[in-house]
Amino acid sequence: MTTTTQEETLGFQTEVKQLLHLMIHSLYSNREIFLRELISNGADACDKLRYQALDNDALYEGDSELRIEIEHDADANTVMIRDNGIGMSRDDVISNLGTIARSGTAEFLKQLSGEQQKDAKLIGQFGVGFYSGFIVADEVTVRTRRADLPHDAGVEWRSRGEGEFSVANIERDARGTEIILHLKDDAKEFADDFRLKSLVRKYSDHIEVPVRMPRTEVERDENGKEIEGSEKIVWETVNEATALWVRSKSEISDDEYKAFYKHVAHDFSDPLTWSHNKVEGKLEYTSLLYVPGRAPFDLYERDGARGLKLYVQRVFIMDDAEQFLPLYLRFIKGVVDTRDLSLNVSRELLQQDPQVEKMKSALTKRSLDMLKKLSKDDEKYQTFWNTFGSVLKEGPAEDYANRDKIAGLLRFATTHTDSATQDQSLAAYVERMKEGQQKIYYIVADSFNAAKHSPHLEIFRKKGIEVLLLSERIDEWLMSHLTEFDGKSFVDVAKGELDLGEIEGEEEKKAQEETAKAKEGLIKRVKEALGDEVQEVKVTHRLTDSPACVVLPEHEMGFQMRRIMEAAGQKLPEVKPILELNPEHGLVDRLENAGEDSFADLARILLDQAIIAEGGHLDDPAAYVKRLNSLLTA
Ligand SMILES: Nc1ncnc2c1ncn2[C@@H]1O[C@H](COP(=O)(O)OP(=O)(O)OP(=O)(O)O)[C@@H](O)[C@H]1O
Q1: CATH 3.30.565.10: does it fit domain 4-236?
Q2: Ramachandran region of residue 486, left (φ > 0), alpha (ψ -120 to 50) or beta?
Q3: Pairing with 473, which of 76, 165, 444, 500 sits 20 to 30 Å away (CA)?
Q4: Is the reported ipTM for this assembly greater than 0.85?
Q5: Given CA atoms 444, 448, 454, 459 in this order, what sign does their dihedral have?
Q6: pTM as predicted
Q7: Which PANTHER family does this one have (predicted)?
Q8: H/E element holding 120?
Q9: CA-CA distance, 600 to 580, in Å (whole number)?
């Protein structure tokens, strides 16, 4: 009989309550995953014990055969999942099974809408773990003892999943954790030997820890008759119980790879692709890398979980070893198992180890190659790009050495399709380049529409030259680290002198020079009227439909980046734009013929309009409206 003492009832953290509620309602059609989640936790607990026992064998308490056992009782309607892993102390239980410590949880939960299908998807990004027991159970009991604590330091945790849980101290001889699910009436189907076995095989075959279930064996006499009273329970290992990555590729089915992904990534959905490699030679390691099909909720959190699961000679060392991949590949999930590190390696040591640096560079290449392969499948690659494209865009700045490879993986919206979908590669752009075109043109704006309708594109549209339409916050940063692709340099169409190279014929250039000369007087007057509002005034040949546009000097920070930095509170030195006027436009004609009384106002209107069209804000919008109105009523 277990004696319970120091029983107390505690409330779940608000986030847990919300999660429980949503999970129970939105994961209804996917209920069986509870078993995978609980086995996964048991396997992690065994991994942790094995790791800690490396330098403290006593933790095994004479039983080093790590295992998970599953039992059920159809009469009592219960399923029990038991492991002899690391176990938990009372404090561990209270914090692990009463709160969610991951950062960003509250914000994540705010996104949930109450709409089942949507929420089920979102919850998949979050990983439900232990709490998934409540999808099938109306009461959960956990009994546990941490491996380094005495038998009287056992803990019993109970909850009906309705806002509170109780904890009490108990005697517990066995270390590790057992979880008893008291099944809901409509989940009785899980208290069934066949069902449980097939679920273990479906979800947990690849887990190295054996998952065992009891079977009653009966002895028979020579006539084949059962001998009464000879029944005994034998424990049968149900899963394959070898670490998946250790097996040879040819023996592993796609379904096994997918199931393993769900275990490592705590994801519900299938990965987009994977790459499994054994490397021998100077460095010896095995890696199994996956590209997920959706983003984890904390992809953009500073301290969001990332990195690979690290094993040294098959012994689990740590989760989220972020030293093996650069930050811009933080969406990659998987495992790395090596002989080249010590079992005692810590996060700090990983940071300094030159072997780790070499593996990082090899794994980075593998990941980029895997993405390249994935890009052959348009549909899948588009899913990847829509999900992780803006993370990959951090690549050229972070990983100079691989920037060509990364550039090949980028996808853009361009004037070729004029659609906001980023689905055009630079290789495709280069293939479509006009005869005589030597550069890759792009524009950066605050929104897709601002980019697409920018006056700067007029000449490009007229001449049929494709321009990349960039409008994500990271885009200007990206472009400042990409200098060329396939030998062609990148040119921001809103900066510097417009140089269309050989696309423009000699005659065209000459005609432009002549116009510029003819308009010298006008340019001078405008410059005088605008004073130091502008750096320079010029005649443009960028425009066909608009009267004017503003440009920046070539090496100046772009307008979009300026606005982002200013919004973030950065003080930047003021930069005056260059105003370019379209000599073919009626308004410019009108300006040229305007009398002294209206010239300055009209010039100012052209400047303000050009700023607005480029997505900028006017210093004094009311003055602009006033000027425009007086012109309209004149
Ligand atoms: N069987 C177990 N033995 C020991 N500790 C456990 C066990 N199950 C859960 N825990 C502890 O409780 C914590 C919370 O578990 P939970 O499953 O909710 O989240 P998780 O495993 O950390 O992440 P995920 O949601 O991605 O599964 C675990 O991190 C672990 O410390």
Answers
A1: yes
A2: left
A3: 500
A4: yes
A5: positive
A6: 0.79
A7: HEAT SHOCK PROTEIN 90 FAMILY MEMBER
A8: helix 116-126
A9: 16
